[in-house]
Specification:
23% of the residues lie in helices and 23% in strands. It is of the alpha/beta class and 371 residues long.
């Protein structure tokens, strides 16, 4: 094994050329989120590739050497996994962008393939200090959160009732619509497990700048404390707005309203004081209606618009529209310059919903839909 034969995941991009691989501490070191290690691939399962340093797929094969950090994962449609408390005979790839741990549960659709399994070769250490290198530390210190900071832009949260409800696609096409309305948009994916496909989609849809939690070295945000998430948010806002001066920053929070970090952030008054608007996505009509109810009951906020996978079905649009007056937009509606009308100020105050919904007939005629 040489450095040239090690396939590195994208979260390793801040690692310099000076490092060592220490196998002597394999049974002694207790890994934590972001700790880098080299593994040897044993058996290919769900992940036949990792996301390489350039963002492209890097295919992996049994006996290959790969470099990834340890990280937790929460993904209702895929894996629940955790960083082990000590040495294990076998490890699992939890996310192709760079997260290794031990699977605790998986969606039934994953059971046939199972996880890609790994063996630990050694930890990546600093040649001088011998300290295990950590992707979060390599990325630098986080900026302290400041709820009172002046922010010359409005923040739009892209939320969903669950994983794969359409949050990223909503954020991307909403960014396109605002761009077509002559507004400059930046995008942040605040939580999740590292995989930069989402921010690439939003960039290609017209966002002036994009970033995500991996820019701060986080392999995932699962099990982060609220204070760290707040500081991460402040750090990413600074990164994505520097030199751009956006009118809007669209912030996507992963998974659903009931997920630990999502729920924690939404019920934090300090964090929510920085948010002016909410776009809510769902897979079905009942989900969207219960999502509205949850937001209004738990945090006294109403979405500005509704979207997501349910808008691919005319029948689901009809079901939802019969029970809410909130705007329902599919992809064509989101990407239209008129979407700007749903993010307005009234009497100098930022508006959080209750605008007239898009005409049902117009919504049903939309030909572009979520995939």
């Amino acid at each position: 094994m040489t450095e040239q034969t090690i396939k590195k995941s994208i979260i390793c991009r801040n690692l310099g050329d000076e490092f060592e691989i220490n196998s002597q501490i394999n049974r002694l070191h207790k890994p934590k989120a972001g700790d880098l290690a080299v593994f040897q691939v044993r058996e290919i399962g769900k992940h036949p590739s990792i996301q390489g340093l350039n963002g492209n797929n890097t295919y992996i094969f049994p006996e290959d050497y790969i470099m990834m950090p340890f990280g937790h994962r929460y993904a209702t449609e895929q894996f629940e996994g955790y960083i082990p408390s000590g040495y294990c005979e076998e490890y699992h790839i939890l996310g192709k962008g760079g997260a290794v741990g031990i699977i605790a549960s998986m969606h039934a659709k994953m059971e046939l393939k199972g996880p890609t399994t790994l063996g630990l070769v050694g930890y990546v250490t600093d040649p001088q200090s011998g300290e295990v290198l950590n992707t979060k530390k390599l990325a630098g210190e986080l900026k302290p959160f400041d709820a009172e900071a002046t922010r010359p832009y409005e923040v739009i949260l892209s939320l969903g009732t669950g994983m794969d409800s359409g949050k990223t696609t909503t954020a991307a096409f909403l960014s396109r619509g605002l761009m077509r309305a002559g507004k400059k948009v930046s995008y942040i994916k605040l939580t999740g497990t590292v995989f930069t496909k989402d921010r690439s989609l939003v960039r290609d849809c017209g966002a002036a700048s994009v970033t995500d939690f991996s820019a701060a070295g986080f392999p995932s945000t699962y099990l982060c404390e609220l204070s760290e998430l707040r500081d991460l948010y402040e750090t990413l806002l600074a990164k994505v707005t520097e030199g751009v001066n956006p009118d809007y920053v669209v912030v996507e929070i992963a998974d659903g309203l009931l997920q630990r970090e999502t729920s924690m952030l939404l019920q934090d008054s300090a964090f929510m004081s920085t948010v002016q608007h909410i776009a809510l996505s769902s897979m079905d009509s009942m989900g969207i209606l219960h999502g509205i109810e949850w937001l209004e009951k738990k945090i006294q906020r109403t979405p500005c618009l509704l979207s997501g996978l349910f808008t691919a079905s005319p029948l689901l649009i009809k079901e939802a529209a019969a029970h809410t007056d909130l705007p329902i937009l599919n992809l064509e509606g989101l990407a239209d310059a008129s979407v700007r009308e749903h993010f307005v100020t009234i009497n100098g105050k930022k508006h959080n919903g209750h605008l007239p919904k898009i005409g049902l007939g117009a919504a049903l005629k939309r030909k572009v839909s979520f995939l």
